[in-house]
């Protein structure tokens, strides 16, 4: 599903070239559950941005679902994101003046879906994450766990094949984090490919594959038998 070959990402800081990623090769198959770990500045976030088509590599090839995406322009990348990828963030990234239902509808508005279809699909997505009774509430009227469930419903509403989650339990207490991870496990069983960035060892150990970054490179890539 995903193939990265010879990926470099560099930035110019005056006369100095800073390497965020160095010669990264990576393959991700269908229905994998992957955790990306590593210290701050190791390249985790840059890797997620490239995987999510939010950024492009300086050099190298990125093939997603059979399509070479590393040289696409911004509009083309937006189309790829909308068709293939759902994003989940630590800070939820919900619009505070919109209800849960309206927040979940947003990706379908960008995709041009009709209003009636948007409403039906958004309602079903919220039901699927256990928020049937909260869909007309504002984010400020919901707990952190409920807001993250809204964010997951929003990520799922266009039926992406890949979910990218950046520290999805980072703002949650332990019990709520466990509930969110249980939801990820259910989505994985239903066929989703899940890639999450985390600094929490207990979260990474729940993934089936753990990829470790350091200094912009993959230094370990191992299968993990201990899953919850």
From TrEMBL:
SUPFAM superfamilies: P-loop containing nucleoside triphosphate hydrolases (SSF52540). GO terms for molecular function: ATP binding; ATP hydrolysis activity; transmembrane transporter activity. The keyword Cell membrane does not apply. SMART domains: AAA. Residues 2-226 form the ABC transporter domain. Keywords: ATP-binding, Nucleotide-binding, Transport. The keyword Transport applies. It comes from the Bacteria. PROSITE patterns: ABC_TRANSPORTER_1, ABC_TRANSPORTER_2. One of its GO terms (cellular component) is plasma membrane. InterPro entries: AAA+_ATPase, ABC_transporter-like_ATP-bd, ABC_transporter-like_CS, ABC_transpr_LolD-like, MacB-like_ATP-bd, P-loop_NTPase. It holds the Pfam family ABC_tran. This is Putative ABC transport system ATP-binding protein. It comes from Heliophilum fasciatum.
């Amino acid at each position: 599903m995903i193939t990265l070959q010879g990926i470099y990402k560099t930035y110019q800081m005056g006369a100095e070239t800073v390497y965020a990623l160095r010669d990264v090769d990576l393959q991700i198959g269908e229905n994998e559950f992957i955790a990306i770990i590593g210290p701050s500045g190791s390249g985790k976030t840059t890797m997620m941005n490239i995987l999510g088509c939010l950024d492009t590599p300086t050099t190298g090839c990125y093939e997603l679902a059979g399509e070479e995406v590393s040289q696409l322009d911004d509009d083309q990348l937006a189309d790829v994101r909308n068709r293939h990828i759902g994003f989940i963030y630590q800070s939820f990234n919900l619009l505070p003046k919109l209800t849960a239902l309206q927040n979940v509808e947003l990706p379908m508005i960008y995709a041009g879906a009709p209003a009636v279809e948007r409403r039906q699909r958004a309602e079903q997505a919220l039901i699927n994450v256990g928020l049937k009774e909260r869909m007309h509430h504002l984010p400020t009227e919901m707990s952190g766990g409920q807001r993250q469930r809204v964010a997951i419903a929003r990520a799922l509403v266009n039926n992406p094949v890949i979910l990218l989650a950046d520290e999805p339990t980072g703002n949650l207490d332990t019990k709520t984090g466990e509930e969110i991870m249980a939801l990820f496990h259910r989505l994985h069983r239903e066929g989703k490919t899940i890639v999450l960035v985390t600094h929490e060892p207990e979260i990474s150990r729940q993934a089936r594959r753990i990829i470790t970054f350091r200094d912009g490179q993959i230094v370990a890539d191992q299968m993990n038998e201990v899953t919850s």
